[in-house]
Design goal:
It is a single chain. By secondary structure, the chain is mostly helical. The protein is 69% helix and 0% strand. Helix 1 packs antiparallel against helix 2 and helix 1 crosses helix 4. The protein is elongated and about 55 Å long. It starts with a helix and ends in a 7-residue tail after the last helix.
Amino acid sequence: MARADRLERLDTRRAELETEYREALIAALQSTAAGVWGLFDHSRDKAARAKVAPVVTALCDLGEEIDAMRDQLGLEPFDLHAEFEKSRGPVAPSAPGEPKQAAAWLERLGVAGGR
């Protein structure tokens, strides 16, 4: 029974961290939608990268921690973090800017004021 209790506590903690991740991502997306570039790393602006680096690092660290817990629980990787990771990096010059991309993410996440 101790193993079942431990797994239940781990699953509860995982759910808490996923909520924390979602809230942190939403805050970062709202900032980006308001015009702060760097979250998606679409430009090579070192100042923008440096400004948002602590936020990105925190999200990535939290995502990795959640994925480790999900692995222990036999669950699939954390989709929200995987999606965020895939959305980062260089894009074509014709791609929407980071503020528009962030607004689209907020809309998809059902957050008021996404657009």
